[in-house]
Records
---
Amino acid sequence: MSETIFALSSGAPPAALAVIRISGKEAGKALSALAGALPEPRRASLRTLRVSRETVLDQALVLWFPGPATATGEDLAELHLHGGRAVVRAVEAALAGLEHAGEGQPALSIRPAEPGEFTRRAFANGRIDLAEAEGLADLLSAETELQRRAAIAMAGGALSQQVHAWRDRVLGASAGVEAVLDFSDEDDVAALPTSFYADLASLAEELETWLSRPRAEALREGLRIVLAGPPNAGKSTLFNALVEDEAAITAPLAGTTRDVLIRAVALDGVPFAFIDTAGLRDGTDDAIEAIGVDRARGELERADLVLWLGPEGEGPELAWEIDAQIDREGHDAKAHARHRISAKTGEGLDDLRRDLVSHGRSCLPRPGELALNRRQGELLSQALTGLRGAGVQSDLLILAEELRTARVAFDSLIGRATTEDMLDALFGRFCIGK
Ligand SMILES: Nc1nc2c(ncn2[C@@H]2O[C@H](COP(=O)(O)OP(=O)(O)OP(=O)(O)O)[C@@H](O)[C@H]2O)c(=O)[nH]1
Ligand SMILES: [Mg+2]
């Protein structure tokens, strides 16, 4: 942790500008080794960067942020370079070279940063908590407007504030229990406040509401829409129409699709993952097709929604009944289809898309609404279990223990109690330079 790190924090060169960040105890020394005397803090200054008196690297805007009130909580420097590949490479090489003593320059403890290492330091130094770091990771990978809005709320600490508030309520309840336990040694008969159990119940209800909301993963990965039905139902043709690409092979041959094909598409800013599957049929003597059918069944189980193109009423529960290929002569119409479409002529497709978008909006977090990810959801469930246990407990020692469980879960949620594995997994999601 004591080493100073550096990395390109802007996108891949070439570009107009490239930003290299340097963070750590020796960031100031590294900056002045290249740019001369340290500039005024938090003010952009134009400098000539050099590795030696003769060798000019670039003309750059440099910024100096002395810690600890910085993004990482450490001394931090930024070099805004011309964004050419060779420029970036030369400056990176010069920074890496500072590891060795040079012309009147002692060796520095400096190295290239690992993925997410700047953010990890921000977390280690208490600049952001875990929920905020997760929000930041989502923000950087956000591709749709809905994802961006949810991530920005999380990164801004909205969930963290909520968790702190819940944690304080649990602490208050614990203090009440401790007080009674302390008094019980004396003659005075102490009791829990009259509203004690009602307060716990209302907190538990609040957590339940949060847990019942749509989860962040659906937002991140898109709503899983599986196209299913027997061979030749027209699944791949509809899939291609929905993803607007000839991604899947279609043919009059039954059993054309064997593998599972997934395409992520945003419709009206709502993220979907459309999934084409092998036609469902039993007793095929083609071993590969049989594997495809197994996979298709697996996808049905994981689907958020199934579009059923097979015989009416034979699809999974809650599947949307789709009457496909309605343009075909002698087409046998379904009696109660949610949509009648022809992927060939395009008939009915706009209605289907609109329906998907409005359904998607209803099962994804609403714009700006905080969505829990799996980790956060699990911890909140643990907290809820503790609270529910406490809510029916009259033995004060056990009650205190249940409340402690809830508190520990809240602590883990915001990262007061974490494991290295978990941190590796989270910060590994970031790119280098973040
Ligand atoms: N006229 C008409 N033909 C269609 C339509 N949709 C699909 N087809 C044709 O029906 C045949 C089967 O279509 P696919 O999309 O490959 O069917 P599938 O359900 O993916 O079939 P498998 O992959 O074998 O399970 C192809 O020849 C398509 O061109 C449609 O809306 N109208
Ligand atoms: Mg197919």
Note: The chain has a mean pLDDT of 91.
---
Amino acid sequence: MAEHVKDLLSAYLDHELDDVEQKRVEHHLSHCSECRQEFEKLALLKQQIYMAYGSVQAPEGLEQAVMENIRQRQFAYGIGKWVAAAVAALLAIVVVMTMSSIVYFGTAIVSAVVNIGFSLLHMIPFIVSSIPSLLGIVLVTAVILIIVSLWSLHRLLETRAIS
Ligand SMILES: [Zn+2]
């Protein structure tokens, strides 16, 4: 009996042997049950592998669709980047403008209040002097207030002294 051909069986199944080797394997398999068994196991295994993976075939146009999808995503990503940058810039401008307007209005309001305050301060003597009776009322009220407070203070001290 010639030597076994187990090492060649895989190549035989894949039709990778030259004619001489193929003939040799065929001839050997015809009378060696050991190698035939091995061959059948290997053939079954290959068939199972093929059924598991070989039958999985990419649908028509899948690669094209994937590539198109990638291109669109890259394009969208590029646009998104620009949009995000534009929004960020716009936001920065708005924030700066808001801040500066707040500062501007803040200073405007403060200076207006200060101006009004100074105006009122300047007007008080005019008002007071233009109405002599008002001056009199203010003076009398001030005197009454002083007297009342002095009197209440005196009473407070007296009460403390007694108790
Ligand atoms: Zn054999």
Note: Residues 4, 28, 32, 34-35 surround zinc ion (CB under 6 Å).
